[in-house]
Amino acid sequence: MLQNIRVVLVNTSHPGNIGGAARAMKNMGLSRLVLVQPKDFPADEASARASGADDILANAQVVDSLEDALVGCSLVMGTSARERSIPWPLIDPRECAVKAVEHSKAGESIALVFGREHAGLTNDELQRCHFHVHIPSNPDFSSLNLAAAVQVLAYEVRMAWLGAEGGALSIEKADAGATRGNELATMDEMELFYEHLEKTLVDIGFLDPAKPKHLMPRLRRLYGRSSVERTEISILRGILTETQKVVRGEPHKRKD
Ligand code: SAH
């Protein structure tokens, strides 16, 4: 069940941190590691720090973009050591772990995303996440080592999983957001929707590409917290398609 939970490391500089993260994951029973453009990987230092979790490194998937790393996921939680310009739904590692285990039990794929050692995740990357996770550290010294941050989340996931196994959490698919029998839209489906939405908003003159302000991030935040189902995305895309037809003066569904 923990196999549905992937750990995504974005642009990691130090291979030692990749190894440390792999070890932290294996200790806690997580196995799926995805690396977005690591600076130096594979590397001896990564294997040395993994000390026995080499299988996680050997099976790690290396991809070119965060978008590629999130394919198939319906819940994405991004970690951040500090406050960002647009406030996003913010949770702590414990809440994050409970959500991850709930969704995983419902058969959904989940990503836990970690940023660069020096700069964390960009605002754009954070806006691709449904929730932001902050480890409540000392505000005067808030940034943990990357592998240490992975360890904290992996431990909480294990605790939530053990609790669920012991029946402490009674988890139904409905609790994971989707109504019974309906699947949540995945990140790749949501990205296609956002592209379609942005284009339509430009076409109808609601969004000025020269002055986008924070419209798209705000809309991402809105849809991101709505647990949108696959069937609902089809409806929304259908509305956008008809809207575009009206704008272009093409034949559309409205009769009059
Ligand atoms: N200087 C960076 C910190 C990067 S630390 C910044 O100011 O954003 C590297 C990564 O470890 C972060 O991107 C995040 O994924 C994780 N991390 C470190 N401290 C964290 C904290 N207190 N809460 C959540 N994630 C944290």
Write structural notes for this entry.
The chain has 256 residues and is of the alpha/beta class. It has 2 domains: 172 residues, Alpha/beta knot, CATH 3.40.1280; 64 residues, Orthogonal Bundle (Helicase, Ruva Protein, domain 3), CATH 1.10.8.590. It contains 10 helices and 7 strands. Strands 3-2-1-6-4-7-5 form a 7-stranded parallel sheet. Strand 1, helix 1 and strand 2 form a beta-alpha-beta unit. The protein is globular, with a radius of gyration of 20 Å. 38% of the residues are buried. The site of S-adenosyl-L-homocysteine has 20 residues, from helix 7.
What's the topology here?
Blueprint: E1 5-10, H1 15-27, E2 32-36, H2 44-50, H3 54-58, E3 61-63, H4 66-69, E4 73-79, E5 90-91, H5 93-105, E6 109-114, H6 123-126, E7 131-133, H7 146-165, H8 187-203, H9 215-224, H10 230-248
Parallel strand pairs: 1-2, 1-6, 2-3, 4-6, 4-7, 5-7
Helix pairs in contact: 1-2, 1-7, 5-7, 8-10
Keywords:
single chain; 256 residues; alpha/beta; Alpha/beta knot; Helicase, Ruva Protein, domain 3; 2 domains; 7-stranded parallel beta sheet; 10 helices; binds S-adenosyl-L-homocysteine
Short description:
By secondary structure, the chain is an alpha/beta fold. It is built from 10 helices and 7 strands.
